[in-house]
Each structure stands twice: as C-alpha cells, then as structure tokens.
Amino acid sequence: MQRIFTLILLSSLAITLAAQQQAKRYILLEHFTNTRCPICANANPGFYNTIAGYEGDYHHIAYHPSVPYSSCIFYQANTEENGARQDYYSIFGTPRVFFNGSNGISAGQATASMMEDRIGQTSPLAIQVRESGQSNRNVEVEVFSMDTPPGGGLRLFVAVVEKEIQYNAPNGETLHHDVFRDMLTDKDGDPFTPAAAGGSVTASFDFTVQGEWQESQVYVIAFVQNYATKEVYNSGTRFDPVINSTSEEPAGSARLYPNPAQEEAVVEFSEPARGMLIVRDALGQTLLTRNAVGESRMQVDVQGLPAGVYWVSFEDDNGRWVRPLFKR
Fold first, then answer.
1. Euclidean distance between CA atoms 61 and 28, whole angstroms
2. Which CATH number does the domain housing residue 300 bear?
3. Strand partners, 202
4. Are 199 and 8 in contact (CB under 8 A)?
5. I want to staple 236 with a disulfide (CB 3.0 to 4.6 A). Which of 111, 127, 183, 231 is the partner?
6. What is the pLDDT of residue 71?
C-alpha cells in the first residue's frame, strides 16, 4: 500500500470567501455486529429498515468484533483491525452502533428521529473519494477545508468495505451490508492536519481486491475523526456528489473566468463541448444543469448567488472537469 499526501492552497481571496461556507455532514454509522450473535440477527433487520429511508445522508460500516463469538467469519478475516475499532469504542457486546463517533446504542434502539436529528448538519470539512482500477485500485481521498478547520488530534481513516455479502451465517442472517474488510490507513488512523480554509489535502492509496472479496461490491469509506473525543467531522465515498476539485480532465481543456466573479462567470472550451455543465453549492446541491453539447463558450449568471464558494463541473464520455468558483 502506498500513501501520498499533497496540499492544495488557493489564493487569499478564495480562502476568505470559502470560509463563509460549510459542507454537508454525512452521518457515519459505525455498526458492530457478529455473525454468530442471535441478538444481532433479531436487531439488525430493524436497524437496516430504519436507515434505508435516508439513503444519501449516511455512510455505514459493519465491523465484526470478537464479542460475543471470536469464531465469527468476518472477525477472523481481519482480527487485528476489527479488534482495533472494538478496543477504541470499548465494545463489550453486539450489536452496537455509533453516530459520528458518539451515542453508542444497541442497533435495535436506532430510530428515524435519531437520523432526522442529524440530517442537515454541516461541517467545515468536505471529503471526496475517487477510485480507479478494478482488482488493483488507486484511491484518492481529498479533504477540503470549507471553513476554518477543527483543531486537535485529527486522524484520517480509509476503510475498504464490501457493500453486500450473501452468506448463511450461524445466527440466521443471510445478507450482510458494508462489511469492513481492510484499513488502508493505520488501524488507528493516520495523523491528519487539514489545510487552511479554502485549501485541501489529498491522500493517495493503492490496494488489491482480495480473492474472497467480490470486486464489484468493494468500495472505500473515508472519514476524519478526533481521536481523543471520537467525534467524526465528516465522511465520504465515491458515490457522493462531486463537491470539490479533481485532477480528472476530459478531452480538450476548459477554463473558468473571472474567478472570483461578481455578476457572471464564463466557461470556455478549447473545442466544442459534448457533455453537461453543472453548478453546485458547497453542500453539493445542484443549482444549475445545462446541456453544453456543441458549445465553445457558456455564461453562468452568479449575480443572485450569495458570496461564497461554488463548484462548476463539466462531464462527458472522456472524463470530468471540476473547478471551484468564488462569488464575491
């Protein structure tokens, strides 16, 4: 596994404007369960039914600790790293679930109101995950500081999970969701220092999909956590809307100007476009979608937008182009 960290800093004006924005805060559900636990078999279906109504607002990881049965097949597949999260949260029984690092309760006690109380919260950190490759994967995790970042002992965790596993478990469960497989960072996370407001830090990892994993079901969840207080500031996967910059470029380049803009911004293509132009706000909500096919130059009216940072993206069959747009 290879880890590479890079820091991207924007201009001082961009930093000032970006500091006026916050990012959508996803609910990270860290779920401790066990394939030999009959209580888990009774509680988990209700938990999954509860959270199913909030797709797109949460990320879920199912760890398998050694309690109550160390012979659990998923615990045995990675005893060290499942055990590390078990020890971190002092798990003495299953099933247990934590919401952004706190409020550890039995999975059977999770309610819709607990989810709704957390939906709509914001964070100074936004996380974008990009994956490439099939059995041999490269992962880029970009953590963007939308506002003044939190201090303290932050750590970055990047977990490999398997979305669905069909397995007839001894406790009677047959379908297992978002099963933790591997930690690409250290098992206790990598010490992490975020960029100043308006900048971003990118971490790069390589891993190989193991033979017993289903390649099509494997994906990565990244999150930033205060290791002392356990608070998770935000999390991200490749399935989330694009809300920050990317190094991917479609055929033919495009440029965005003026930036910052006050009344109007222009997207200029080096050759006639063949895709869609999308403008999103800092929370990832789509504000504008325009068909750019055949266009060489497109105007974006920003006069009515509040000052802050927005994301302009262009996508076609050859790739994706994303840039921050600062409105003053």
1. 8
2. 2.60.40.3080
3. 6, 142
4. yes
5. 127
6. 98
**Residue 115 included in any domain:** yes
Q: Of 236, 262, 280, which closes a domain?
A: 236
φ and ψ of 167, to 5 deg: -155, 125
Both structure tokens of 89? 């949260």
DSSP 26: P
Give CA separation, 218 vs 82, 242, 270, in Å: 17, 20, 37
* Rama region for 49: left / alpha / beta (φ>0; ψ in -120 to 50; rest): alpha
pLDDT value for 242: 65
Residue 163 CA to residue 161 CA, distance in Å, equals: 6
Residue 60 token pair: 């879920």
SS3 237: coil
Q: Is the model more confident about 85 or about 14?
A: 85
Amino acid identity of residue 139, one-letter, is: V
Range of the domain at 225: 4-236
User: Strand, coil or helix: what is 81?
Assistant: helix
Strand 200-208 with 190-191, pairing: unpaired
Q: What Å distances lie between residue 65 and 30, 62, 73, CA to CA?
A: 12, 10, 10
Same domain, 262 and 230: no
Closest to 21 (Cα-Cα) out of 244, 238, 242, 266: 244
**Quick one: 315 and 198 in the same domain?**
no
How far apart CA 285 and CA 103 sit, in angstroms, is 28
Rounded Cα–Cα distance for residues 93 and 68 (Å): 6
Res 253: pLDDT? 65
pTM over the 0.90 mark: no
**147-175 pLDDT tens trace:** 899 999 999 999 999 999 999 999 999 99
3-state secondary structure of 285: coil
Domain termination site, one of 236, 262, 297: 236
